[in-house]
Design a protein that fits this description.
The chain contains 15 helices and 17 strands. With 457 residues, it is of the alpha/beta class.
Length: 457
């Protein structure tokens, strides 16, 4: 996992470092790292030209150190004052953006970059908010961003990924071991997802899915099949109000539940399973609300609540009353609309802070869906997944995600890790599919292909 540090957290890290190392030494290390990156991209120094756009702050200081080092290597370097730069920069091979860093607030308009010149940003492209990734139209669009010690949220959210290009994280001697957020990667799935023992049996990783209703079976089917494809040895699917003709025919063991008060039936059997997935396609009736709330409060195994389950669960204060009665964790997986109903307002531009706040108020692990998904625990610890893409913006893929996380819970992962690694696997599997026209059913089939590859490493 790669540490992710907010702007305020980075200020603390910098201050602590300066108790042992001078600011000048840190600036020298940062500038040297930028110079090395530029030289690699130039492929040599002779005859090459670089323009450094430098502001008055420490970001500009990093750029000026890089300029000095590049000159010593024989590169032709011009340093331009960011506040007085012409509308168009002089001809060059690379522009180094050292105008403003992560602490910048406001709007910045990048000077016009010469044709074919690459742009290397220091720490974060100027004009991009370090915590939210928000950016005005004129903000820098870099080919490479050299950032120090840890990723910044602004590189992962909103405009950040589009404007930062390839991100290089450079160690300059700052201690980020206390980072409260981390970005998950493929290797984390390989290392953390428990492998099924040779002598295992199906009930050791069983999942109960309470989902669907007559005429609304698609979400229940996607969720339960995804759980099986993600490693659940047995999936029991209970569908309220369903008759035999309503139930899907597959490897999933499906059965009908009473139309009302079906919590009694679920509580009678769920103890044999390792996780409960609750919500997709249940509807939003008062009867459904009463059942969902009781199951969240009393189910003896980890519970994931999604879709209609979230819509009937109530606001954060009411959820907290339910989670306080539990000895095992609850995972909530809202999209922005569901989040607004739980939290009382939509996620703000700082999605990491928004997810942390709802997790704290609800007492649950919160997965806030997005192209970069945030998973936050009630104590503020957070994991991020940046594997999502526009391929997943189609009906049913959220139900698939719920099934994957349910399976990961059943395989023994901690709920925060199950949610984050499930989101990562979900996005990476989608990446194996067609860039246009990917369907939720396609995604179910791609999951074991991706998981088999990553678990074989």
């Amino acid at each position: 996992m790669r540490p992710v540090v907010t702007v305020e957290e980075m200020k603390v890290v910098d201050a602590e470092a300066q108790q042992h190392v001078s600011l000048d030494a840190l600036v020298a290390r940062a500038g040297a790292a930028v110079a090395r990156s530029v030289l690699r991209q130039l492929g040599g120094a002779y005859g090459r030209r670089v323009v450094v756009v430098a502001g008055k702050g420490h970001n500009g200081d990093d750029g000026r150190v890089a300029a000095s080092r590049l000159r010593r290597r024989g590169v032709g370097v011009s340093v331009v004052d960011a506040a007085a730069a012409d509308e168009r920069l002089p001809a060059c091979d690379i522009v180094v953006d050292a105008a403003y860093g992560t602490g910048f607030r406001g709007e910045y308009r990048e000077p016009e970059v010469p044709e074919h010149a690459r742009v290397v940003a220091i720490d974060i492209p100027s004009g991009v908010n370090g915590d939210t990734g928000e950016a005005a139209t004129g903000a820098v669009r870099a080919d490479v961003t050299v950032t120090f010690a840890a990723l910044k949220p602004g590189l992962l959210f909103a405009e950040g990924p589009l404007r930062s290009g390839s991100v290089e994280v450079v160690d300059i001697g700052l201690d980020v071991s206390g980072a409260g957020a981390h970005l998950v990667e493929d290797a984390d799935v390989t290392d953390l997802l428990p492998r099924r023992p040779r002598d295992t049996h199906k009930w050791e990783t069983a999942v109960y899915v309470a989902a669907g209703s007559p005429g609304m079976m698609g979400s229940a089917t996607f969720c339960s099949l995804a759980a099986m494809r993600a490693g659940a040895g047995m999936v029991q699917l209970g569908v309220p109000g369903a008759g035999p003709r309503d139930l899907p025919s597959s490897e999933v063991v499906a059965h009908g539940l009473p139309a009302e008060r079906w919590d009694i039936d679920v509580l009678g059997v769920v103890g044999r399973c390792r996780a409960l997935v609750l919500g997709p396609g249940l509807g939003r009736s008062d009867a459904a609300a009463a059942v969902v709330r009781r199951l969240v409060a009393e189910c003896p195994v980890p519970v994931l609540v999604d879709a209609d389950g979230l819509n009937v669960l109530g606001e954060a204060r009411e959820v907290a009353q339910l989670t306080a009665r539990r000895s095992t964790p609850v995972v909530l997986t809202p999209h922005d609309g569901e989040f607004a109903r739980l939290a009382g307002s939509a996620p703000g531009p700082d999605r990491l802070a928004s997810a942390r706040d709802l997790a704290r108020r609800s007492g649950a692990v919160v997965l806030l869906k997005g192209s970069t998904t945030v998973v936050a625990a009630p104590d503020g610890r957070s994991l991020l997944s940046s594997s999502g893409s526009q391929r997943l913006a189609t009906a049913g893929t959220g139900d698939v995600l719920s099934g994957v996380i349910g399976a990961f819970l059943a395989r023994g992962l901690h709920p925060m890790e199950a949610a984050a690694l499930g989101a990562h696997a979900h996005g990476r599997a989608a990446g194996l599919g067609l860039p246009e026209g990917l369907l939720a059913g396609d995604l179910v089939g791609l999951l074991p292909r991706w998981l088999s590859g990553v678990m074989a490493r």
